[in-house]
Design goal:
The chain is mainly beta. It has 7 helices and 69 strands. The protein has a 24-stranded parallel sheet that branches. The chain has a 19-stranded parallel sheet that branches. Strands 1, 3, 5, 6, 8, 11 and 13 form a 7-stranded mixed sheet that branches. Strand 14 and strand 15 form a beta hairpin. The radius of gyration is 29 Å and the shape is globular.
């Protein structure tokens, strides 16, 4: 048996029998090969034959006017076409087409289409199985032919094609099926042991048929791009660059959707900065707006384990004229999601990384020397992660000391010129508009502005002002932060836990990627090889073949069992033995839904009365793991018909790992609580779950979970017919909001997490049983329907930086059974009418940034009986200064004792404890150095919030004054806390 293209899917007539796609427009169904006109979609109406976002057929053709799909005639050449009309917030629209294959064989499917207003995207599914992404459909007034997907093997008989339309208005004229020759085998995957990890790649760019030069002497751009494009057409995977220099002279690289560009890399803080895989960039010189060296073009594309060097960049006597501007070394398309940029060294980039519109992106382990702009992010909407960034001129200087690295040495005068230039021009990290951005471990040296919080105007045109700004949590930032554009919500500001003195000695340690002990060509077991015989067509049961490969690997001393592109049906369950990793081709987690280049289809245990106790779909024995694929339950429903299934993944011993895995519709996700799983690791994880996401217990010790996101998004935006899509999303969301608990921690010790994120779950973080000495860094629960954090048991629980959005209920609650100590090291709350916590048991300690006004001398222009001004600055949330403003203005003045640089103020109003109708309506903050002359620096008006938290351009002050413009409903102002934050002037 030959190893065929691993994306190729064998489809039979019976494959779609269980799914109702409607019936063919023509009862005999169109015969293929041939063409289907787009307006001849199936009969059966909304939710079966099609889904249309807007009611009615507003097209101009009169064709099928009684249905909801817009059918138009293109005026110039009388083309009849269907038009999608996706509105803001819509998930997608879709159409089904029945067809008959008369001649079985290999086919390519193409579209004649155009996009409107912005580029579009179409996913293609045959018999409800994703067969690959289409090309990005360009915004163009003319129709053009786009290669859709394939090659795909189609058996004789009836099938169904689904067009899944995404990203704005898309016009489809027709679909064509072309029979092609057998595409033949692909090269075997490559397994390489690099200093940072074991890489399994689809292509090695230096091998046939690409033969990219890695000496740095010949332009390698076209050969590399050919490998990237071919893998993009196949649906994604990894392109590997062995160590060496790769010259980019004739332009930059485009990384397609789901494709990873991966090299060999060592952390330059422990190795020489010029080692491993180096991209030598010659293109773009003098044109900073030109194509970047590497463009992550579409969803879930990735660049990892690379260094960038500009051989023609060097300082001279006049650095302003000699330093040459270049485009960004790495940039992203503004329309994509889920980008990953990890393990990167910049030896002398002019501009480093620009992420525009990169919601749910990951930037980690970035080092190097950058001259103008280090990392720039903006226009992101959902949780993203940034960690371990170190920028400074020492990396170029050190790399230049090793001639074997091919980096030109710097003489002392050039090194001095380099320092002078960056200290005058470099913005190390610019944080623009991002929601829920979780940032840890930044160090920037030799920069004019190390960290700049400022909107990126060119990325945010058309955005409502209320959505502009950086909103997230920062920790361990060894750099000065300059804030220009604070978030415009009155009670929202980014959180910096470094300003909490009690966190000084605390830190999170990011682990290295686990690896199996045995590596090399003989330790790679391909499930589609003749020895194991997996098919990957979504029809045949591949479970026995995969298990055979896993057992064989274990018997021979361990290794990696490789799942290539395809859909692997598993009717039973799998066990991963010790010393073995089950790995797919995804080099980063799929945070953007609908990109399934490798998926396991799970069936066992539906509606089992003992689902929680039944064998998990995948069980990990000690020292084993899974990595790089998706898992879907094709028979799972949503709403009231949801079915219970066993856990998707369960650990049964120490040192188990789950990395770069996404679960699209699991009932229960990962079980690390039924057995003791010391030192477990879950990293870069995404899921939709119906009940429990990740459960930790079993007396496990020293486990870690990082960069996890649990939301209803992956399944509601999925492409499969049984996904809730737009029309079932509200019911689906209600169910998740009533039952789903994202993260559950019970009997365990020393658990450490970073970036546990969730969206619209019932409970974000649930602590129960005997969980002790846990450290939860950057816990981010958005719109939890119950409590954001609930603690019903355990010992010492530490939450370092909590993010929560919810209304009219406590965000944190301890139950009566909790007897321990919960420590919260600052928190960021939004949308609260009552944002206090509820303590029913145990102790809660809250540590925040220390206010400069706390316990300082204070005077007021008036006071109510028993409510002196000192109660507004006593750091107690249940005492208040009351000022009678009926006879004139109310002033509260605090002497800070000495001058400070102040930048933020907070007011806790009457509604914090009393009736919100008594909230102060308007007030101003005034600063003074002498106590006589005050200047207004910030104000609020028309307030209905219980807590005001505002930032402003930093100013100098020894005296701060709260001036009440308009008090509460009874002409009195009640201030439970008046806090001002800043730093001492040196």
């Amino acid at each position: 048996m030959r190893l065929l293209l691993s994306l190729l899917i064998l489809l039979s007539t019976a494959a779609g029998a269980a799914v109702d796609f409607g019936s063919a427009f023509d009862p005999s169904a169109p015969q293929m090969p041939g063409t289907i006109e787009a307006e001849n979609f199936n009969r059966g109406g909304q939710f079966r034959a099609y889904y249309a976002e807007t009611a009615g057929n507003s097209g101009n053709s009169g064709h099928r006017k009684q249905e909801l799909v817009d059918v138009d005639i293109f005026e110039r050449d009388e083309i009849s076409f269907v038009r999608s009309s996706l509105t803001v917030g819509a998930i997608h629209e879709w159409l089904n087409y029945a067809f008959v294959i008369t001649a079985p064989g290999w086919y390519e499917i193409s579209l004649r289409a155009r996009a409107v207003d912005r580029p579009g995207r179409v996913n293609l599914l045959v018999d409800d199985r994703l067969i690959g992404p289409s090309e990005l459909i360009r915004d163009d007034p003319r129709f053009a032919d786009f290669r859709g997907a394939g090659p795909v093997f189609l058996t004789a008989g009836k099938h169904n094609l689904k067009l899944d339309l995404r990203q704005g208005g898309i016009c489809i004229d027709s679909l064509s099926f072309r029979r092609i020759q057998d595409p033949g085998p692909l090269p075997d995957p490559v397994m390489v042991l690099t200093p940072s990890e074991i890489v399994v790649a689809d292509f090695d760019v230096t091998r046939a048929p690409f033969h990219a030069d890695n000496s740095g002497q010949v332009d390698a751009r076209d050969a590399i791009q050919a490998a990237l494009d071919q893998l993009g057409r196949l649906g994604g995977g990894t392109v590997f660059f062995p160590p060496g220099h790769y010259r980019l002279e004739n332009g930059g690289l485009d990384v397609p959707r789901g494709v990873a560009l991966v090299g060999s890399w060592e952390n330059p803080t422990s190795a020489h900065p010029g080692s491993g895989t180096i991209i030598d960039v010659y293109c773009g010189r003098g044109s900073p707006e030109a194509h970047p060296a590497v463009l992550l073009k579409e969803d879930n594309s990735c660049v990892r384990n690379l260094s960038f060097y500009y051989p023609e960049q060097f300082p001279g006597a006049d650095p302003e004229s000699v330093f040459r501007p270049y485009p960004f070394s790495i940039a992203t398309s503004p329309s994509g999601w889920g980008y990953t940029i990890r393990n990167i060294t910049f030896l002398n980039s002019f501009n480093g990384i620009r992420v525009s519109g990169g919601s749910a992106h990951t930037i980690a382990r970035i080092y190097g020397t950058v001259l103008r702009s280090g990392i720039l992010t903006g226009n992101g909407y959902e949780f993203s992660f940034m960690s371990e960034v170190d920028l400074g001129n020492s990396f170029w200087k050190e790399a230049a000391t090793c001639e074997s690295a091919g980096v030109r040495p710097l003489d002392p005068s050039e090194a001095t010129a380099l320092d002078a230039f960056t200290r005058q021009n470099l913005v190390g990290i610019q944080l623009g508009k991002n929601d829920g951005h979780l940032v840890y471990g930044l160090q920037v040296r030799d920069a004019a502005k190390p960290v700049l919080v400022k909107r990126i105007q060119e990325l945010e045109e058309g955005e409502a002002p209320v959505f502009r700004g950086f909103w997230g949590i920062l920790s361990k930032v060894k750099a000065e932060i300059f804030e220009v554009d604070p978030y415009p919500f009155p009670d929202v500001h980014f959180l910096n836990t470094d300003l909490v003195p009690e966190t000084a000695e605390m830190e999170y340690s990011f682990p290295e990627i686990p690896r199996v002990e045995r590596s090399g060509a003989k330790a790679l077991y391909h499930v589609k090889s003749t020895a194991f015989g997996a098919i990957g067509d979504g029809i045949c049961d591949d479970g026995p073949s995969i298990q055979k490969a896993l057992d064989t690997a274990a018997a021979e001393g361990g290794g990696i069992v490789y799942l290539p592109r395809g859909q692997f049906r598993v009717e039973g369950h799998l066990r991963v033995p010790s010393g073995v990793e089950l790995r797919g081709p995804h080099a980063s987690v799929r945070r953007s839904p609908g990109v399934e280049s490798c998926v396991l289809l799970a069936f066992e245990g539906k509606d089992s009365p003992r689902a929680a106790m039944d064998p998990a779909f995948i069980t990990l024995q000690a020292d084993s793991g899974i990595r790089g694929f998706s898992i879907v339950y094709p028979e799972q429903s949503w709403g009231r018909a949801v079915s219970a299934y066993p856990f998707t993944i369960r650990g049964e011993g120490e040192n188990v790992w789950v990395i770069d895995v996404d679960l699209e519709n699991s009932f229960d996700g990962i079980d690390l609580g039924s057995h003791r799983c010391d030192r477990h690791l879950v990293s870069d994880f995404s899921a939709t779950v119906f009940r429990e996401g990740i459960v930790v217990g079993g007396k496990s010790r020293g486990g870690q979970i990082q960069r996890a996101l649990i939301s209803w998004g992956p399944w509601s935006a999925g492409s499969r017919q049984n996904a809730p899509h737009r029309f079932g999303r509200e019911e689906f969301r209600r169910q998740i909001g009533k039952e789903a608990m994202a993260y559950v921690f019970s009997d365990s010790r020393n658990e450490s997490t970073f970036g546990l994120s969730s969206f619209q779950q019932f409970i974000h973080l649930d602590v129960r049983g005997d969980c002790r000495d846990a450290f939860f860094w950057h816990s981010a629960g958005d719109n939890s329907r119950g409590q954001n954090i609930r603690v019903n048991g355990g010992g010492t629980i530490n939450v370092i930086g909590a993010f929560a959005t919810l209304r009219n209920r406590p965000w944190l609650e301890t139950g009566p059974s909790f007897k321990g100590n919960l420590k919260v090291f600052d928190y960021l709350l939004t949308k609260h009418r009552n944002n206090r916590y509820l303590r029913l048991g145990g102790e809660i300690e809250v540590f925040t940034e220390h206010s400069l006004t706390t316990d300082r001398p204070v005077v007021a222009s008036s006071q109510c009986r028993g409510s002196p001004p000192a109660l507004a600055v006593d750091a107690k949330e249940d005492t208040a200064w009351c000022g009678d403003c009926s006879s004139g203005e109310c002033l509260l003045t605090v002497d800070l004792g000495r001058p400070f640089r102040v930048y933020r103020w907070e007011v806790k109003n009457a509604g914090y404890v009393e009736d919100p109708e008594l909230n102060t309506d308007s007030a101003s903050l005034q600063l003074s150095l002498d106590g006589l002359h005050f200047e207004t620096v910030d104000s609020f008006f028309g307030n209905r919030e219980n807590r005001i938290d505002r930032s402003f351009s930093p100013g100098r002050a020894r005296f701060v004054r709260l001036k009440i413009g308009s008090p509460g409903a009874d002409s009195r102002t009640r201030i439970y806390e008046f806090n001002v934050f800043g730093k001492a002037i040196r």
